[in-house]
What does this fold into?
Amino acid sequence: MIRGRKINRYLAKLVSRLVRPNIGRIAIEGGIVSFTFDDFPKSAFVAGGRILEKFGVRGTYYTCMQFAGTDREGHRMFDADDVREAHQRGHEIACHSYSHLDCAAAKVEDVLADTMENAEALSSVLGRFTPANFAYPYAQVGLRSKRALVKRFMSCRGTRPGINLGKTDLGELRANEIRESPYDHEAFRRLIAASAAAGGWLIFCTHDVADDPSPFGCTPLQFEAVVAQAAANNGRILSVREALELIRVRGA
It folds into this structure.
């Protein structure tokens, strides 16, 4: 039964990638790099945000408001003050659904209701606010949900690795995970160099940034090494929202 559900999820993701309802063209001289955080663990802002700001850049925090003030994977999650401060300091607050909903398994009306609930919860903290971008919880993408979400958000991000370049599916942007294990800095260096040379948009994602990270996070030293490599190789590090604005302005 469990194996059957896994096969169905895999097939749903495969089918969703054949349909690309929102196509963008990406070709920016020198490329763009974005750093994103899923679920918004507190350390992603306290440690990860500090590292980004050290280099004069900002990141994107895909936020599930149901997680506010809780603990997950042994790590403290964000609270309302973190959301407010991150926003005030120029980081992008984006949507990761309210309840970390599996968008491949849930009904499309439930997915839309859940994202709306998240937007309302964010507005209660930030005032009149609407998140512009979305990341799929569990990286699970369903065709019907994808079609609906691309109408509500500028982009939706998954965790399929690679570089966003040329004709790009804005309904499932590629992203490359930074995890404590496995961690291959040389592979990241080559990826950053290749994206810059091709004029692509390279997105990184992680969760917590802590000395003892969860299986989905990385250490501050690892995170800073990747940020430093991107800054040294490219220098154009933008939040997801900023990157999309630049791409549209330039007509890429």
Q: What stands out?
A: The chain has eight helices and eleven strands. The helical segments are 2-18, 42-54, 80-88, 108-126, 143-152, 185-198, 220-233, 240-249.
